[in-house]
Amino acid sequence: MQKLLIDGKKILSGNINISGSKNSALPILAATILNNHTTIKNIPLVNDILTMLNLLKFIGLKYKLSKKKNSVEVINRNKNVNTVAPYKLVKTMRAGVLVLGPLLAKYKSAKVSLPGGCAIGTRPVDLHLFALKKLGAKIKIKNGYIFASATKGLKGAKFKFPSISVGATENAILAAVQAKGITVIDNCAIEPEINDLINFLKKLGVKIKTKGRKITIQRSVIEKKISHKIICDRIELGTYLIGGALVAKKLKLKNVEPNLIKKEIDILKKMGVKMKVGKNFIEVYKSKNIKNINIETNPYPGFPTDLQAQIMILMTQAKGLSKIKESIFENRFMHVPELKRMGAKIEIRNNTAYIFGPCFLNGAEVMATDLRASVSLVLAALIADKRTKINRIYHLDRGYEDLEKKLVKCRARIKRV
Ligand code: UD1
Predict the structure, then answer these.
(1) Which residue's CA is minimally distant from atom 32 of ligand 1?
(2) Whether pLDDT at 296 is above 90
(3) Domain spanning 22-229, CATH class
(4) How far is the centre of ligand 1, averaged over its atoms, from the C-alpha of 368 (Å)?
């Protein structure tokens, strides 16, 4: 199994190109089932994307991936496809469940493996199924699979999600695109990645309107040859911004859309992080006198749970007590015991972490437990004294494109062994 060896306390300096958003590309790839010829640009070359492409191929779509151009062409000219998402693909990547809506909408039936639990929480799919049932799907769960059918096609409906889910909102939109009549969905997630999906669907000709958390979709005929550029990965951007604040003389983050993380920029500025925000770049500098802060993760426009582990590293360097309340996932502090082994002073009570800073971090052997927890260990290792060995880094490869290459180019001492 591969590991990362990181020698800390090296001052970074240079440029990093921010990749396209993984969480935007995944539902858009699922949406290509609905179309016949789609080109997607700015696609991040990470393992979750390769898994989604494998899944599309398993279903019967064809794709041509240009690694050099970070673009992929997806072609679906099949009247009959294999409307199945097997366990072996969905178990490694929960977003596999996003093919359920488009398969059901276009081919009237789908068999998709239940994703099962995952390290950060139970992560059920009840909200996905709730929406599909409202659109007239018949759903049965058997042998670890969701069997969904709508023999006469889906029907538009008006409903409200009992709680907010990014994936369930995406699945519902993708199904509603081909449901007869009009669908009005309330209490939707409104993350920038959902907006990107909506913009993609509009290019296809879908009539779709949003107002606050309400989304209205009208059935549309949508077979067009289109090309779409994925938005920048706001979580990768936030991760390197925090990295720069911790350890860079000057780090220039390029190809970015700063408006996607306006609130996070404000929070970092409040903490004393020095940066210069341009139209499509952000420069960040190692900041002294970091101030403590209290944060709560929440659905967008709240603070993203996907940046919670990373900002915690900055909090270990802030003066005084900082708090983070994790309101999205029930078990998303798995990085904390590892950080404590590096010398961090953190206590967890219920769903809140109390971080006492500033504190000195030492290199240690640690274990990555999920995608964002893993990258927080990389950030900790960059400021730690001596060497940190990070085990189980396959999590990082699921979601961060060229992480070591990007950091090594900026003088970090990182080796994969
Ligand atoms: C997406 C992101 C993930 C991010 C998360 C929250 C992708 C590919 N992944 O995951 O990086 O951390 O949003 O911003 O875009 N829930 C239910 N029932 C359901 C679905 C969800 O109870 O049917 C719960 C979850 O357990 C969780 C909360 O709702 O507590 C939010 O999850 P959700 O927004 O669905 O996350 P994902 O779409 O899986």
Answers:
(1) 165
(2) yes
(3) alpha beta
(4) 20
Active site residue 359: no
* Spans of all domains in the chain: 4-18+232-416, 22-229
CA 13 to each of CA 120, 185, 244, 281, 365: distance values in angstroms, whole numbers, following the listed order? 33, 46, 9, 15, 26
CB 167 within 8 A of CB 128: yes
**CB-based pocket (< 6 A), ligand 1:** 23, 26, 94-95, 121, 123-128, 165-168, 189, 193, 305-306, 328-329
Tell which residue, 172, 30, 44, 131, has the closest CA to residue 90.
30
Asked if the model's pLDDT at residue 80 lies above 90, the reply is no
Nearest to 18 by CA among 231, 204, 335: 231
Question: Do the beta carbons of residue 374 and residue 368 sit within 8 Å?
Answer: yes
Q: Which amino acid is at 66?
A: S
Catalytic pick among 118, 188, 359, 410: 118
Residue 252 C-alpha to ligand 1 middle, in angstroms? 31
pLDDT tens per residue, range 189-212: 999 999 999 999 999 999 999 999
22-229: same fold as 4-18+232-416?
yes
Q: Which residue is closest in CA terms to ligand 1's atom 33?
A: 165
| CATH number for region 4-18+232-416 | 3.65.10.10
**Nearest of 273, 380, 409, 410 to residue 4 by alpha carbon:** 380
Q: What distance in Å separates the CA atoms of residue 108 and residue 260, rounded to the nearest whole number?
A: 36
* Residue 25, SS3 per DSSP: helix
Model confidence over 344-375: pLDDT tens digits? 999 999 999 999 999 999 999 999 888 999 99
| Predicted confidence (pLDDT) at residue 298 exceeds the cutoff of 80 | yes
Q: Is the pTM of this model over 0.85?
A: yes
Six-digit token string for 17: 């190109």
Confidence of residue 118 (pLDDT cuts 50, 70, 90): low
